[in-house]
Amino acid sequence: MTMTHHRRHLLGATLALTSLVAPIAQADLDEVRFGVPPWPGVTVKSEIAAQLLEAMGYETRQNDLAVSVILNGVAEGDLEAYLGGWYPVQTEMVEPLVADGKVEKAVANIQGAISGLVVPRYVKEAGVESVADLDDYRERFDGTILGIEAGTGINTAIGEAIDKDLANLGDWTLRESSTAAMLAQAKQKMRNDEWVTFVGWEPHWMNVSFDLVYLEDADDAGVAEIESTVWTVVPDDLKDRDADVHRFMTQYVVDTADQNDWVHAYSHEERPAGEVASEWIAANHDTVAAWLEGVEARDGRPAIEAVEAQFD
């Protein structure tokens, strides 16, 4: 199957999103633009949504951006969807935009997720069960926490814990990097049975590939045991601009087990996101039909009929 969507890699976090496309001139959308941070789960989730929308007659564009830039783009109407609104770590980033009437939390697309600092099981068995235990073994960890991309909510929480010396982390260092780089470094340390603590979350393939333990939080640091919900964030006026796209977004709820499978196939097996998405759509008619209930394609057909024709 030939995919028609586009993927744009924007390197500057401050790049003006208004240059992505001309202002919308009609009530119905022609193109649906996604903001996609470099996280495998959101990548495949956005890819599946994009393929469904394309089958419905829309063009799509996936823009690889930092979270802060994505949220600004959604708020300004330069993007139509962000499928990675992790709460509570992004609460302070999203809620002000909701309060200002700029964005809508359309649906909790993942529930029961978890995020926070993790350690290998052999580190836990040696006595590290809580964030409060980390500083007792500071030298074993080189006083370093491996984090993900700068500007993400979990990194901000870790930085604040260090600044406030919560759980005795005041002398520790947060090493920010891409998710891929963080996991590569953690994998190397675990291969050598070295001690390491880093940012973990589920759903993600790391929970399948590595034997990890999520630490207990301490001192209300807010860096561990974070029970999370992932929200779909859209412009506040999306329903007025295209009611069918809006309805689809409000019904696009993903089972955690499905996203674990997507991420494992995409990141661990290194299969293309488009291939993972198209195979899953073709094999999961009932779930797709529920997502598209009451949604019409651009030609007026029920959306599920348009999708079935594309993925027959």
Q: What does it look like?
A:
The protein is 39% helix and 21% strand. It has 312 residues and is α/β, with parallel strands linked by helices. The strands form two sheets. Strands 1, 2, 3, 4, 5, 8, 9 and 10 form an eight-stranded mixed β-sheet that branches. It has a two-stranded parallel sheet with strand order 6-7. Helix 1 (40-55) links the parallel strand 2 (31-36) and strand 3 (59-64). It is globular. It starts with 5 loop residues before the first strand and ends with a helix. 46% of the residues are buried. Residues 8-27 have low confidence and may be disordered. Residues 1-27 form the signal peptide. One of its GO terms (biological process) is choline transport.
Main CATH class of the largest domain: Alpha Beta
What letter string, H or E per element, gives the SSE order? Answer: EEHEHEHEHHEHEHEHEEHHHHHH
* Spans where pLDDT lies below 50 across 5 or more residues: 8-27
| Straight-line N-to-C gap | 11 Å
Task: Give the biggest sheet.
Answer: 8 strands, mixed
GO cellular component, one term: periplasmic space
Protein name: ABC-type glycine betaine transport system substrate-binding domain-containing protein
Signal peptide: 1-27
Pfam family, one: OpuAC
Please describe the topology of this protein.
Layout: E1 6-9, E2 31-36, H1 40-55, E3 59-64, H2 67-75, E4 81-87, H3 91-99, E5 103-120, H4 121-125, H5 131-134, E6 144-146, H6 153-163, E7 173-175, H7 179-191, E8 198-202, H8 206-209, E9 212-214, E10 226-235, H9 238-241, H10 243-251, H11 256-268, H12 273-283, H13 285-291, H14 303-310
Parallel strand pairs: 1-3, 2-3, 2-4, 6-7
Antiparallel strand pairs: 4-10, 5-8, 5-9, 5-10
Helix pairs in contact: 1-11, 1-12
